[in-house]
Write a structure and sequence with these properties.
By secondary structure, the chain is α/β, with parallel strands linked by helices. The chain has one domain (10-244): NAD(P)-binding Rossmann-like Domain (Rossmann fold), CATH 3.40.50.720. The protein has 8 helices and 7 strands. The chain has a 7-stranded parallel beta sheet with strand order 3-2-1-4-5-6-7, with helices on both faces. The chain is globular. 44% of the residues are buried.
Length: 252
């Protein structure tokens, strides 16, 4: 049997409307999974992600949720559990606020930590609890290069993504004995809306490219293969890993 085959499985992907989340949802559908997509501004019908999932013959269910709202996250978790078992939870949604540390406001800090760390934990706790009881499941977090490094003028984001790496290991320690794989993907510098500000600064853009051995910014679809791997039986013995997909950035 093909260990990468996801037919008959349900995947939930947060932040699926564009960028990395869109690519992840499409890759999972191409491998056979049905998809529930979550985003704050996700269209009820006619979204790009719905069209791409349908093109692979899989079902897509949209769900709007503001992940900066703790009550909305709990409601989302309850709605997902009521639909039936979730086989794959991809905690991808995130946000970033750029400002020097001395001017990084409490509001920005709270917003980034809520979306990038607390919401993923709440969803993982609620959905993961059901996976533990069932004895199987896959949880994938989207980490970052800043899970390993400090970054510049993004203290909230760096703190949140460092927290995601720690959370990945903590949950893996608890849930691996119960057949639940918890891992994370750490994208490098990917051409998305979150990195537009960097790409629009010629000197910063050049400095980034000069350090990437692959010689280019990543594309969202560069994350597809590792997403399917971590969602599939092929990764049955992978627990607590934070896997960089960075064109060699960390190796330089």
């Amino acid at each position: 049997m093909n260990p990468f085959d996801l037919r008959g499985r349900l995947a939930v992907v947060t932040g699926c409307r564009r960028g990395i989340g869109l690519a992840m949802a499409e890759a999972l559908a191409a491998a056979g999974a049905d998809v529930v997509g979550v985003s704050a501004a996700l269209e009820e019908t006619g979204s790009v992600v719905a069209e791409r999932v349908a093109a692979h013959g899989r079902s897509f269910v949209p769900r709007r949720a503001d992940l900066s709202d703790r009550a909305a996250v709990r409601d989302l978790a309850g709605w997902l559990l009521a639909r039936g078992p979730v086989d794959i939870l991809v905690n991808n949604a995130g946000t970033i606020r750029r400002a020097p540390a001395v001017t990084h406001s409490d509001d920005d800090w709270d917003h980034v930590l809520e979306v990038d760390l607390t919401a993923p934990f709440v969803l993982a706790r609620e959905i993961g609890g059901e996976m533990v009881r069932r004895g199987s499941g896959k949880i994938i977090f989207t980490a970052s290069m800043l899970s390993f490094q400090g970054g510049v003028t993004v203290p909230g984001y760096a703190a949140a993504k460092s927290g995601i790496a720690g959370l990945t290991r903590a949950l893996a320690n608890e849930w691996a004995p119960h057949g639940v794989n918890v891992n994370a993907i750490a994208p490098g510098y990917i051409d998305t809306d979150n990195t537009r500000a960097l790409r629009e600064q010629p000197e910063r853009n050049r400095a980034i490219l000069d350090r990437i051995p692959a010689g280019r910014w990543g594309r969202p679809d560069d994350l597809g293969g590792v997403t399917v791997f971590l969602a599939s039986d092929a990764s049955a013995y992978v627990h607590g890993a934070v896997i960089p997909v960075d064109g060699g950035w960390l190796a330089r």
